[in-house]
Amino acid sequence: MASKYNLIDYDPEEERDKDPNGAPLDNLISAADYMRDLLCTHGVKFAVMGGFAMLCHGSSRTTRDIDIVVDASMSRLWQLLEPEPR
To answer: Where is this region: Disordered (predicted)?
Structure first.
């Protein structure tokens, strides 16, 4: 079972210093595909927003994450995410 993230340790300054442009685009695309498949499988409505959404529409902006808004409670999201391998 996956452990819960500590948001303070999630994106430390040391990681930002190592790669100021963020994660490779292929990693972000893989993460977005994974989340899309998981949410669609469980019938959770969602939308991608922010910098990653802008990239998908042709922007040259860099981003470090994928912003997803979901139509589900946090407890429902934990039910879906905790059993998933990392």
So the answer is: 1-24
